[in-house]
């Protein structure tokens, strides 16, 4: 079959700071190729909708699949499905990915017949199965594990047998030079582990994978890395190096193969402090940037998000990362209830520290505990506003004033690392980029005002809503984790050793 896989457009955050390859879609693409299909990927983060319609006409796929990881992309994805169905009525149209999994039934409804199937969970096993079934009997799609159709729902989705069997089809993305994160320009992505053993209330990474945690073998990880041409690497793991031994083993393989790259990873403050040696070792291998989700700078906030970390741990972790000369980007969650004073405290704190500080707005997402337990009512039913840069819960300040405070605070934080200040500090790096024809990073330095703008954000709330989000069934209630899981937990997929189990348990 001819298969086209599509990733929707970038969201606000990716318009400035980064734009990364759609690794999940590349893995699904390779699984389809292995099953004998002819596959193309179109990434609308770096292509235009006109490219999409042109490709539908020229390639004339038998199946069109969409990767919907981000809830805010849902309306765009539904519209793209309708375009595909309209132009190619015989083609199988299906959607999968993180957010699609938590909104499967409503997606099918919004599709009004244009979406044949939503596939929940990991796509590497289910997509080739779906294509196989579709070749025979279109009425049998709901029999595929993880499938949701207008007619019904299949068995729960299946985990892939081993992460070592997977290969991303990186060659299917012709515009690879467009992917970057900060000064890593260009940058590729890699996966060393999948899942997270914690259970933060605002997060759906753990509910998607049934709180499992799986690892790629060190040999396979290094092999994949050796194939990557880009000098910068973003490690997509939710929490890097939870098991320090795994980090050391991958590192040794990298040394053995003499692979020289620069790395950006994401981890937790308590993991960094517990496994200091592995991060110090990776610093020598090329680890330059680290993203730490601190979430709050007060104890009350940490408690609310059930981050299971303390203020002291967070600050000590920051100190430790700085001592290794790693640039840290921290994330703090802004609650819509904040007043001007809370924003002022954040501005003052952020200006005193050398690190990059990002702000995201507390947003309940389908698939999280907060979605079911939040007792404040949503102020909007527009999926597009669920991008953690907009307020979807009632603001204490008038909405326009809230965005003014938010954007002004972001501007103060960004001024440390964007514009002329950053340009002067990074002259040598920029020179190197320009010599290689890479301009993503230099463009990023002056984009802030164009993208972050309080008036634009207020205006975003006035747009007509074509597809209203389905509201949580009962809000303000307690919820059992198993009711949220996409993949049902399996002991065999919980690859954390005993010590780590105890460590995770102790933070719970
Ligand atoms: C790496 C990552 C990023 C990267 C890379 C994004 C990219 N281009 O792919 C960066 C740093 C850029 C990023 C940014 C953001 N992210 Co992010 N990100 C992640 C993270 C940690 C891992 C994603 C990943 O690559 N996993 C590895 C690959 C292999 O898995 P995958 O993509 O999920 O694909 C698998 C399945 O989903 C499925 N699948 C995927 N596509 C398809 C298609 C079909 C047809 C099928 C059947 C299946 C299928 O099969 C794949 C293989 O198993 C996830 C958390 C998580 N664990 O999922 C958050 C996550 C997806 N991000 C999130 C958010 C909120 C954001 C931002 C909005 C944050 C911000 N500050 O603004 C931005 C917006 C990005 C944008 N689109 O413009 C949320 C999404 C919440 C939601 N429900 O919408 C998540 C879930 C994090 C969280 N804790 O809540 N992100
Ligand atoms: S530690 Fe990170 S990935 Fe894991 S549940 Fe918490 S926020 Fe999600």
Question: Can you give keywords for this protein?
Answer:
single chain; 508 residues; alpha/beta; Rossmann fold; TIM Barrel; six-stranded mixed sheet; six-stranded parallel sheet; 23 helices; 41% helix; globular; binds cobalamin; binds iron/sulfur cluster
Tell me about this structure:
By secondary structure, this protein is of the alpha/beta class. It folds into two domains: 2-148, Cobalamin-binding domain (Rossmann fold); 176-506, Aldolase class I (TIM Barrel). Helices cover 41% and strands 15% of the residues. The chain has 23 helices and 16 strands. Strands 3-1-4-5-6-7 form a six-stranded mixed beta sheet, with helices on both faces. α10 (244-256) packs parallel to α12, α15 packs parallel to α17 and α17 (399-415) crosses α22 (454-460). The N and C termini lie far apart (48 Å). The mean pLDDT is 90. The chain binds cobalamin and iron/sulfur cluster.
